[in-house]
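Let us work through a complete example step by step.
Step 1: write down the sequence.
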Amino acid sequence: MSRATFRFYAELNDFLAPERRGRDTAFEFYVPGPVKDAIESLGVPHTEVELVLINGESSDFRRVLADGDRVGVYPVFEAFDIRPLVRVRPEPLRETRFLLDGHLGRLARYLRMLGFDSACSRDAGDEELARLSAVERRILLTRDRGLLKRREVTHGYWVRETDPRKQLREIVERFDLAGCLRPFTRCLRCNTPLRAAAKAEVAAELPPRTRACYDEFLRCDGCGRVYWSGPHHRRMLALVEEFRGQATKSPNSETPD
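Step 2: predict the structure and record it as tokens.
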């Protein structure tokens, strides 16, 4: 029997049993296989990994383990650029386009509120979600660890938090999104980009009080929804301030629910 030694770093330890966290883990095998298979058999989805060092050398997921190998496995690095070292995938791990499973619907609405392209499929099964994330080049967000281990998924993240607002903060911090917010530019319902609409264009669709009190509107050409700076706008602005540090004056109609 052959043996390799693994050490997982930072938040990758979230996937490990408590007794394995922050320490060397022995991986025994009879038939040598790719390091990707070993990483996932130890509980860590490959989509969470950005750097693999085998005996101090950067390696891709296809590297076949040998007896005595020492393997360091690292998550996404936010503080410094390690692109010259990364070999696990030919393209960057992250783009700011998301696909969320049906259990993260409120998180999807919050991300849209901040301006991020965030598709959400309530009825799609695991196979379809994996396919869509690859075809549409989206980061798959889910709380299902098994989904992230599917071969088709190359860009994904396991959401740790359960409260939607905490999930939003987790995603903004994890993917370093605070500097590229474009709040109130996407439809909360269907994710379509919004456009400015003249009052005359939407007047027939407005409640009488709204028609009398507001003059600036946005329309979604996907689902037809009309947005304006309604009573919930201040609450939405306060949430945006948490992430970019200043108030926003763009119009919208309501907070995600």
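Step 3: interpret the result. The helical segments are 35-41, 105-113, 126-135, 145-148, 164-174, 199-202, 208-213, 233-244.
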